[in-house]
């Protein structure tokens, strides 16, 4: 039977011929938590009374969400996770070692893997052809102990990308456009699979940005095929041996096919307070921005530092607009220093934050004041997301964010 | 979940897109290892008075896409800790749905448009029927998938695994 990528991976893992709607129990290749969901996961795992983790070297505890810790309660949560990792032989990725989803892409996720994480943006690894999905603490605790989990095999939407993006239009604009089109619940319980010539021409870094936000349309996974671009990315990370080629069958059956012509896209912005509340940047021009935040698991990669530096080089941020930049990993930060991007950004007035989630989830490093507006390259603009329900969050691409930092108002990057 | 149970309580009505940030605000992340304290702030950013008004057995009634956003299981945990006996919504985000079942909180998908804030509801879990005692209407809700019902019937995923040692779905 012809299979989608989703069906192919779950069939490979379970040894069954799976079809949408089936309930299957699948082995899990990697199980991960971060510091805000990890303590509950660990307590639930411990409550099971199991003597050990099913696969300690593939169980990863990330401390990235509130890192370094701003409060003693969170410091104690971190201590708890460190002790558990040590006692049970799990992998620990501590303060400053980067955002979990970026590190999964750089070091661990392989095409065809099944990955579960107590973080909704675990879907990011779909950019590498991994069936990666976010779950709660109980589910991940079960995966910690049993090395497996259950899935309902999802129906698949195929997103066919054609054409070529125009200058200053990015992968972020593609996914914001798609979510605006189908809605924040437009793909609930579904798998989103991306393909077509536009996807084939896309580097993995862009694919990670798109897969990252599949969950903002309600999807269980966002998947790209594993092809030459995947091999190139894994080779850059020193992991060419982890590559396998993985494509959906030509005649796979999709519940829905959505065509997007990349050449027709414009820089896109999501307005408060839902991700599907999108508009072309031109419609929002001139809205005052108090803070610009470039970073997170969506847009904290080296390519983002380059895009921002190319716009900000030789310029200065607007004095009324704070510019926060958080590289997603030490590898990104070091490459950004080597290439001179970090220097360009600092000279333009940026505050460089340590690798981690920074202000994205409202714990520290960029909490908004009452009535303040942030233009962010993150993936969520829910009320209260950046620590203050009196704040407003707009989501945009890195070029749009950088251009807006220069002018102090929402700005079309094609006009700077 | 005891299927023979009939739940009765007051409806607290919320709108569409009630995110996990509205249910368990990110700014209170330092309380996540102190769930009773976090539960005092449940749904605070959607309705600051909710936590002080809700009584044991009451219902949270949402619109579409309830629970969208984060994987934080703390969200359904603190709804349950606040005494809520079930969440009713027109549609539910995938991760929240699974998390709610995993912590033993029934989630009933039904047309909530006809339920008004403050209505008294009676939910017959076995019959799949919701009676709105205030307006006299009767609603039916979607069947919880068998795999999830098996987990819910044990009181959640951890009790389920402790009992069965594995997934027997």
TrEMBL record, chain A:
Gene Ontology biological process terms from the UniProt entry: L-leucine biosynthetic process
EC numbers: 4.2.1.33
Keywords tagged on the record: 4Fe-4S, Amino-acid biosynthesis, Branched-chain amino acid biosynthesis, Iron, Iron-sulfur, Leucine biosynthesis, Lyase, Metal-binding
Associated pathway: Amino-acid biosynthesis; L-leucine biosynthesis; L-leucine from 3-methyl-2-oxobutanoate: step 2/4
Lyase listed as a keyword: yes
MF terms (GO), sorted A to Z: 3-isopropylmalate dehydratase activity; 4 iron, 4 sulfur cluster binding; metal ion binding
Residues involved in [4Fe-4S] cluster binding: 297, 357, 360
NCBIfam families: hacA_fam (TIGR01343), IPMI_arch (TIGR02086), PRK00402.1 (NF001614)
Self-association and partners: Heterodimer of LeuC and LeuD.
Functional note: Catalyzes the isomerization between 2-isopropylmalate and 3-isopropylmalate, via the formation of 2-isopropylmaleate.
UniProt similarity note: Belongs to the aconitase/IPM isomerase family. LeuC type 2 subfamily.
Record protein name field: 3-isopropylmalate dehydratase large subunit
Lineage of the species this protein comes from: Bacteria, Bacillati, Chloroflexota, Dehalococcoidia, Dehalococcoidales
Automatic annotation (TrEMBL), chain B:
Taxonomic source organism: Dehalogenimonas alkenigignens
NCBIfam families associated with the record: LEUD_arch
Gene Ontology MF annotations: 3-isopropylmalate dehydratase activity
Leading EC class: lyase
One biological process term in Gene Ontology: L-leucine biosynthetic process
Pfam families to which the protein is assigned, alphabetical: Aconitase_C
Function recorded in the entry: Catalyzes the isomerization between 2-isopropylmalate and 3-isopropylmalate, via the formation of 2-isopropylmaleate.
E.C. number: 4.2.1.33
Subunit structure: Heterodimer of LeuC and LeuD.
Family under the similarity heading: Belongs to the LeuD family. LeuD type 2 subfamily.
InterPro entries attached to this UniProt entry: Aconitase/3IPM_dehydase_swvl, AconitaseA/IPMdHydase_ssu_swvl, LeuD, LeuD_type2/HacB/DmdB
Top-level taxon of origin: Bacteria
Assigned keywords, A-Z: Amino-acid biosynthesis, Branched-chain amino acid biosynthesis, Leucine biosynthesis, Lyase
Pathway membership: Amino-acid biosynthesis; L-leucine biosynthesis; L-leucine from 3-methyl-2-oxobutanoate: step 2/4
Catalysed reactions listed for this entry: (2R,3S)-3-isopropylmalate = (2S)-2-isopropylmalate
Domain Aconitase A/isopropylmalate dehydratase small subunit swivel: 59-105
Protein name: 3-isopropylmalate dehydratase small subunit
């Amino acid at each position: 039977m012809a299979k989608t990528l989703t069906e192919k991976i779950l069939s490979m893992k379970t040894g069954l011929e799976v079809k949408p709607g089936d309930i299957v129990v699948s082995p899990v290749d990697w199980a991960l938590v971060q510091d805000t969901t990890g303590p509950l996961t660990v307590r639930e795992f411990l409550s099971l009374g199991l003597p050990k983790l099913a696969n300690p070297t593939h169980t990863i505890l990330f401390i990235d969400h509130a890192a370094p810790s701003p409060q003693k309660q969170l410091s104690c949560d971190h201590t708890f996770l460190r002790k558990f990792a040590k006692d049970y032989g799990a992998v620990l990725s501590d303060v400053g070692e980067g955002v979990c989803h970026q590190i999964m892409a750089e070091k661990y996720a392989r095409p065809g893997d099944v990955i579960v994480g107590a973080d909704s943006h675990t879907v990011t690894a779909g950019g590498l052809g991994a069936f990666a999905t976010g779950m709660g603490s109980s589910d991940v605790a079960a995966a910690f102990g049993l090395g497996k989990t259950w899935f309902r095999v999802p129906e698949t939407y195929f997103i066919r990308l054609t054409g070529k993006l125009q200058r200053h239009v990015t992968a972020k604009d593609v996914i914001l456009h798609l979510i605006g089109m189908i809605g924040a619940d437009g793909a609930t319980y579904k798998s989103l699979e991306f393909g077509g010539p536009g996807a084939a021409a896309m580097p993995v870094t862009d694919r990670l940005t798109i897969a990252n936000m599949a969950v903002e349309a309600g999807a269980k996974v966002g998947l790209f095929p594993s092809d030459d671009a995947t091999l190139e990315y894994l080779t850059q990370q020193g992991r060419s041996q982890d590559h396998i080629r993985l494509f959906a069958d030509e005649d796979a059956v999709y519940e829905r096919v959505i065509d997007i012509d990349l050449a027709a896209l414009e820089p896109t912005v999501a307005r408060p307070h839902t991700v599907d509340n999108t508009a072309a940047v031109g419609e929002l021009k001139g809205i005052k921005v108090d803070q610009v935040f470039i970073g997170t698991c969506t847009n904290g990669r080296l390519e983002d530092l380059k895009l921002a530096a190319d716009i900000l080089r030789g310029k200065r941020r607007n004095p009324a607009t704070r510019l926060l930049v958080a590289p997603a990993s030490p590898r990104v930060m070091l490459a950004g220093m080597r290439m001179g991007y970090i220097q360009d950004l600092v000279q333009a007035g940026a505050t460089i934050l340590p690798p981690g989630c920074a202000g994205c989830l409202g714990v520290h490093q960029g909490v908004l004041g009452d009535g303040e507006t942030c233009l962010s390259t993150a993936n969520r603009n829910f009320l209260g997301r950046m620590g203050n329900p009196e704040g407003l969050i707009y989501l945009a691409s890195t070029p749009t964010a950088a251009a807006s930092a220069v002018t102090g108002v929402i700005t079309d990057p094609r006009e700077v | 979940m005891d299927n023979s149970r009939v739940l009765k309580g007051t409806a607290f009505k919320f709108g569409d897109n009630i995110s996990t940030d509205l249910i368990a605000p990110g700014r209170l992340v330092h309380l996540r290892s102190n769930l009773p304290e976090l539960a005092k702030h449940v749904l605070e950013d959607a309705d600051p008075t909710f936590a002080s008004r809700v009584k044991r057995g009451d219902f949270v009634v949402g619109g579409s896409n309830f629970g969208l956003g984060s994987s934080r299981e703390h969200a359904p945990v603190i709804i349950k800790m606040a005494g809520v006996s079930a969440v009713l919504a027109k549609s539910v985000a995938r991760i929240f749905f699974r998390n709610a079942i995993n912590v033993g909180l029934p989630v009933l998908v039904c047309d909530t448009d006809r339920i008004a804030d403050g209505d008294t509801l009676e939910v017959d879990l076995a019959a799949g029927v919701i009676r709105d005692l205030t307006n006299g209407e009767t609603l039916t809700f979607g069947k919880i998938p068998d795999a999830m019902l098996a987990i819910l019937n044990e009181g959640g995923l951890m009790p389920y695994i402790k009992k069965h040692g594995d997934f027997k779905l």
